[in-house]
Amino acid sequence: MVSKITRQRSAGRRRKELSPTVLSEVCLVATDVDGVLTDAGMYYSESGDEWKKFNTRDGMGIKLLQKAGLITAIVTQERTRLVARRAEKLAIPELHQGVMDKLSVIREMAVRHGISLQQIAYIGDDVNDIEALQAVGVSAAPADGLPQVLDVVDYVCQKNGGEGAVRELAELILRSRVEMKSTKRRG
């Protein structure tokens, strides 16, 4: 099992516990694309067309988050029609492409939706995600994320990028909401 929730950060600070309470407070889930929703490969045809492989289970995870009332977002440095088409197909309301400062975009979404950074989950895999990952309430990375990213996130998925990591995070969040509802009913 790859989960490193309790592993210490490289700076010597303890990771926060990803309790059902922390997870159930998430209102917005944002994801990077290359290396998270995809396997980080860039495929080109002979005619120069770019292809990306998306995992349908990640797509269902996004749809389940939306059905539960969470806002979903893509925040990526790349700018492609493929990503726009995938976001449109999944009805992702927050699509931000060509982003050099991901934290600024995440802060702007928080303000616009009237939520705190602590109510945002972000999953990323590379060094350009670190600042955003350190600022949000729940940070995650695919199992094959870069080591410096794995060192700063709250949760390391068992799945690799493009192989269900987003679905894994979605299920953690959704399961926590069910647990919190049943706890409130019993209490």
Shape: globular
- CATH-defined fold name: Rossmann fold
Give the second-level CATH assignment, the architecture: 3-Layer(aba) Sandwich
The radius of gyration is 16 Å
Give me the count of strands.
Answer: 8
Count of discrete domains: 1
Overall mean pLDDT: 90
Straight-line N-to-C gap? 33 Å
Tell me the name of the CATH class.
Alpha Beta
Task: Note poorly predicted spans.
Answer: 1-14
Helix content: 25-40%
- Count the helices. How many? 7
- CATH homologous superfamily descriptor: HAD superfamily/HAD-like
Strand content: 5-15%
Q: Describe the strand arrangement of the main beta sheet, using strand numbers.
A: 5-4-1-6-7-8
Taking the sheet with the most strands, its summary is: 6 strands, parallel
Structural class: alpha/beta
| Succession of helices and strands | HEEEHEHEHEHEHEH
